Amino acid sequence: MPILTIDQVMHAYVTNQSAVLALDHLSLTVERGEFLSFLGPSGCGKTTLLSIIAGLIEPTKGRVLIEGKEAKSMRQTIGYMLQHDYLFPWKTIEQNVTLGLKLTGKYSEKTRKQTLALLHQIGLRDVDDRYPYELSGGMRQRAALVRTLATDPKILLLDEPFSALDYQTKLKLEDLVWETLKQYRKTALLVTHDIGEAIAMSDRIVLFTARPGKIKRIVSVPDSLKACTPFQARQHPDFSPIFQMIWKELESIEQT
């Protein structure tokens, strides 16, 4: 059974004055441990789809199942990492990264130690008692990743989590997130506007049409690139041809 099933999902935003169709008859299945990226024009419903998968909003039509159960009943199995870290400035890093454990009733001395061990593992040592303002942007995003993973989610939703960072930090975090998710065998869905990032990190890339969002094409990343870290993938000879193909596909989508 796929870990995630999106079945004929439609979603419209309705006000007193208008109705805007964001997603139109979208169907997709995701296997356990897969990394998928969503690419498409701005406003094509990528983030709306993440919100539906997270159980934050219900689709107008269709359904989303996580392990065969309705997404809204599986909210605690979802981790969500956003463009901004949203760490609470008045809480220490330890208090921030263990917050999800407390909110979901999973906090114990064992889970606390596991979370701090992960914090140290990804290069954040000696920051437990520090506050977010004392850390760089890249360090705060690492802490946000630990907070997301602390509750052991089944699926991670990543909504442009690197876009606010400088390029060098972004590349380093791509590798870190990719390696961490591989190690813990997590399923992940990434919304991005960066074609290179999608190719370097993903198993498959879903290309969306302009609004209303439909699946235009699903691109499978070659095994030669999937075996590489994101940084290595960008240097691989197979990288440029798939980049050019996706670039042309997105250009054709934006011109229709």
UniProtKB/TrEMBL annotation:
Could you tell me one molecular function GO term of this UniProt entry?
ATP binding
Which Pfam families does this entry report, sorted A to Z? ABC_tran
Q: Which keywords, in A-to-Z order, does the entry hold? A: ATP-binding, Hydrolase, Nucleotide-binding, Transport
**Matching SUPFAM superfamilies:** P-loop containing nucleoside triphosphate hydrolases
List its EC numbers.
Answer: 3.6.3.-
Please name the source species: Anoxybacillus ayderensis
Entry keyword annotation includes S-adenosyl-L-methionine = no
Report whether Zinc shows up as a keyword of the record: no
Protein name, per record: Aliphatic sulfonates import ATP-binding protein SsuB
What are the ABC transporter domain coordinates in residue numbering? 4-235
